[in-house]
Design brief:
The protein has about 450 residues and is of the alpha+beta class. The protein contains 14 helices and 14 strands. The chain is elongated.
Length: about 450
């Protein structure tokens, strides 16, 4: 409003020249944020405390939006708009690659490039290394990059929970994955640039999961080594259980052929199916056994609909069992209050050993052998068998669900439901059906120790 008259455009050139704060030899735009009251600082607190924003909300917003800036474009932050002092230049993630522990870009085909970034701990501060000298957040992210902009950005707990499907079961807090699409890729911006969508077919939104398989296949060797170093060490108990599950899976499957990776290339192996399966089964009503479901990634990489050989999902193998004891790891895998989570893409079974069934089984075993003269040995054996019972129950549930895949009456959706954390939790709650094995083992070991006077340390080791 100018002199009590409303105008759409007001020429403020002379006013700005007089203030001397901005240059007039280049284009710029000034944005004024009006708050809910005269005391609200809209730069530091844009939403008036609901929700409350940290000091770097502006810089992080740009950092997780623009992956590259056009040639000749530079962005600067005045003091007060970022968490440090003075006037600072904005740097994108690729421009700050030296701030990370290690970065590698892999060509994934069809012009798609996958950027893998490892951001280790920074001086035991709880932050990642890239926080040093940064104006922005250092949390790890996963995103799609298209024409210099980031879409479907995953970060924090969200990314940690999604990461196992990308072949990153551990270390997601320090690992970022950015899938960069070429300008010619068959996608386009949504009108408000909130996401990208396919240009053909159903024109659905493209999400990071569409490239999970490509990310998994192209992980650099150094990254796999880091992931393995961050994984809990496998125990003899989990390895024995996996062998037991493999034997069961072999027994339940029938002979069929599927591609499998080998040193010399691909060869056919027996994948099998459940008892009662028929080679000419249909997946649900009106299905066709000769046509496997085509994933969204297949539609993108193979517009003609050709199904690529999926050699990473060798489901004739028993799942790798990962026991979780740290509540933070349990929360990252989204199974707080639930027994387990099965990641189909990597055939990995995460078991929550803080789940109530473990404590209930341990209490039952400790009470049963409460009269034994050394309660410490009883407690250790009870803990071992309680964990073993729950891992066994959910492991068996996964194997039985896998074996249903070729049963005609079981649709892919039925199998998926059987593998959900809720279903696995119900299986874990049935530990009493298998507790007799623990009774026999503990009775034998405690009886032998009592009669032979075995050393306590040797018994616990056994």
């Amino acid at each position: 409003m100018e002199d009590d008259a409303f105008e759409e455009v007001v020429d403020v050139t002379e006013q700005v020249r007089g203030e001397g704060e901005y240059r007039l030899d280049e284009d710029w735009t000034e944005v004024v944020l009006f708050g809910n009251g005269v005391d609200q600082d809209t730069v530091a607190d844009p939403y008036d405390g609901d929700p409350k924003q940290d000091r770097q909300w502006i810089t992080t917003g740009l950092y997780h939006r623009f992956y590259n800036l056009p040639p000749g474009v530079e962005v600067y932050f005045h003091e007060g708009t970022h968490p440090r002092d003075g006037r600072r230049q904005f740097k994108t993630i690729p421009e700050r690659s030296d701030s990370f522990g290690r970065v590698e870009t892999v060509e994934a085909g069809e012009g798609v490039r996958i950027h893998y970034l490892y951001d280790p701990n920074y001086q035991e501060t709880g932050h990642n290394k890239s926080i040093s000298g940064s104006l922005t957040s250092s949390v790890s992210t996963a995103a799609i990059i298209f024409r210099g902009e980031m879409y479907d950005v995953r970060k924090g707990r969200k990314w940690a929970g999604d990461a196992p499907a990308f072949g990153i079961p551990f270390g997601a807090r320090h690992i970022s994955v950015h899938v960069e699409l070429p300008d010619s890729f068959p996608v386009r911006h949504e009108p408000y640039r909130r996401f990208v969508q396919l240009t053909g077919g159903e024109q659905r939104q493209v999400v990071v999961e569409d490239f999970a398989d490509a990310v998994f296949r192209n992980r650099p060797a150094w990254l796999i080594e880091i992931i393995n170093s961050l994984a809990p060490k496998s125990s003899a108990s989990t390895e024995d259980l996996r062998k037991e599950l493999q034997d069961l899976l072999n027994e339940l499957r029938i002979k069929t052929k599927s591609p499998r990776e080998a040193q010399t290339g691909l060869h056919l192996v027996d994948e099998g199916g459940a008892r009662g399966a028929r080679p000419d089964h249909c997946d649900g009503e009106g299905g066709n056994s000769d046509k496997s479901p085509i994933s969204p990634t297949d539609l993108i990489f193979n517009p003609g609909g050709a199904k690529r050989a999926d050699i990473s999902k060798n489901l004739e193998q028993a799942p790798e069992i990962i026991p979780l004891r740290d509540p933070a790891d349990v929360e990252d895998n989204r199974i707080t209050g639930k027994a387990a989570r099965y990641v189909r893409e990597t055939n990995t079974l995460f078991v929550n050993l803080t789940y109530s069934a473990v404590a209930a089984a341990q209490e039952d075993l400790e009470l049963r052998y409460a009269t034994y003269e050394d309660p410490e040995i009883v407690r250790e054996l009870a803990r071992h068998w309680a964990e073993r019972l729950v891992m066994g129950r959910v492991g068996y549930a996964v194997v039985y669900a896998q074996a249903k895949q070729l049963v005609r009456e079981w649709t892919p959706e039925d199998v998926k439901k059987a593998l959900e954390p809720e279903s696995l939790s119900l299986a874990a709650d049935g530990w009493r059906d298998a507790v007799s094995t623990a009774y026999r083992s503990m009775s034998t070991r405690l009886g032998a120790a009592k009669s032979a006077g075995a050393d306590d340390d040797e018994l616990v080791a056994a």
